[in-house]
Design a protein that fits this description.
alpha/beta, about 325 residues, about 15% strand, two-stranded parallel ribbon
């Protein structure tokens, strides 16, 4: 759905035809499963922070991230949303210089979970050990450095997303999968000679699930924009400036793209210029961006049911 620092003045119909690289799944992705949309009209965070947590947060401020996320969700009309959060963490050798910032961002994800998830928990899976998830809560977040141990290995992004999707399948709700990384996948597909095949195909498969993938790059990673721009079967109509077009009632105008590979665009890719100086407010804004339109499209695709004012039309 676009990089944070991205502008466009090209109309949708003027985009060059998409040519799938070798090995990319070209069979259109179908709906895999539906879950009910959960929204609490009282607009209260899912989990309250106790006085003990506020007093104990001496080194990493959980409460600041919690409050910033609450405000960001209110600003985009999503206060009261309920969703589970999984975070994929790149622990390759190249990211070690940003590792302390990565741990800070993980605590901000926990601030999001306290607003959105009834469990108040984020599930963290590292690239180096994706089959051993780590649960971070308000009770153990100050030990995040000890809990999340980096491998300083490669970047098996596709395998990690597959592991995240396996966890998401156990959730009976929308799942937001964060992806913290600084580089391209390093899984070589010997049939195609490409390193991106496994991840791209995992992204396509994810589009049939109640899953939104939020890529957050701490360096420029052009590949993340490529998977952001994969053609979808259900597209949002855009004007000549690249802005979504809405009808008189404020609903998105959608159309069917017969050449789409994934069911919907469930990806949002953003870049952090400097993860060390990223504020809680900037993270919250980046996290909340595009959640609302994605939910609307999921409703029309049948991925989410019971979305107020929207029903399956595709």
């Amino acid at each position: 759905m676009g990089f944070f620092k991205k502008s466009s003045n090209v109309a949708v119909q003027d985009r060059p035809a998409f040519v799938p690289p070798p090995g990319l799944t070209t069979t259109p992705q179908q709906l895999v499963r539906s879950v009910p949309f959960t929204y609490v009209e009282t607009q209260q965070p899912a989990v309250s922070l106790s006085k003990e947590v506020r007093d104990d947060a001496k080194h990493i401020s959980l409460v600041k991230g919690f409050d910033a996320m609450k405000a960001a969700l209110e600003n985009c009309g999503m206060a009261g949303l309920r969703a589970e959060i999984i975070v994929m963490v790149d622990d390759s050798g190249s990211i070690q210089y940003e590792w302390s910032a990565i741990l800070q961002i993980l605590v901000r994800y926990l601030g999001a979970a306290l607003n959105l998830s009834a469990s108040g928990t984020i599930t963290v899976i590292t690239y180096g050990n994706p089959t051993n998830p780590i649960l971070i809560t308000k009770d153990n977040y100050l030990q995040v450095k000890e809990l999340v141990r980096p491998s300083w290995g490669g970047t098996p992004m596709g395998a990690t997303l597959e592991a995240a999707l396996a966890i998401a399948e156990g959730n009976n709700s929308l799942t937001i999968i964060g992806n913290l990384t600084d580089g391209n996948p390093t899984e070589l597909d010997r049939n195609t000679g490409l390193y991106t095949t496994r991840m791209s195909n995992a992204v396509i498969r994810s589009s049939g699930h109640p899953v939104m993938l939020k890529n957050l790059a701490v360096k420029t990673v052009p590949y993340l924009e490529e998977i952001d721009d994969l053609p979808s079967q259900i597209e949002i109509e855009k004007d000549a400036a690249g802005n979504p077009v809405k009808d008189s009632e404020g609903n998105l105008k959608l159309y069917r793209n017969p050449k789409g590979l994934r069911l919907i665009d469930n990806v949002d890719s953003q870049e952090v210029a400097d993860p060390f100086t990223m504020s809680d407010e900037d993270f919250a804004k980046a996290f909340a961006e595009e959640i609302e339109p994605c939910i609307e499209v999921m409703a029309h695709a049948g991925i989410l049911t019971d979305v107020p004012g929207h029903s399956r039309t595709f």
